[in-house]
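Lest this sound abstract, we think one record worth quoting, the chain in one-letter code, the fold tokenised, each line plainly labelled:

>
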Amino acid sequence: MKKILSLQILVIAAGTAFAWSAVFGDFSRFFSAGGQLTQFSGCRFPNPLATPCFYGAAAFVLALAGAVLLWQRQKRSWQKNLVWLLFCGSLFAWGVNAWEFYKFFQPHTGAYIGCSGLPAKSPFYTPCFTGACFYLAAFLFSLWLLKKWPVNSKPAQ
């Protein structure tokens, strides 16, 4: 079971790394454009604290911490909680993407501006879409692991 739990940590860590690299890029652009941490309007780029990407990245950190604790303690009930957290994160991420697709297909002049404030050819090329794919992969893996986990199993000593 520890090997499978290690794979779960790897999947969630990959999503966490991607999400935070996108958030740090957003912060870099925001500060380079003259934005201040407490400024939520008046800058060319959105304040990353006000973007869904920041909150998705924060939830990935919680999921990673939960996966590491789960690896240490190996309690099936904790896996259920992790599945719910990843389900909610995935629902949030795909909801954000649904909004991005809606905006993309609305009549607009000029380039489509994605959730990070950058022009994109389509929502498929935004960090939001990639992050949602990571969330979905982590959720499906965690759900598969829960189904594979024996109901009356004891933690390994």
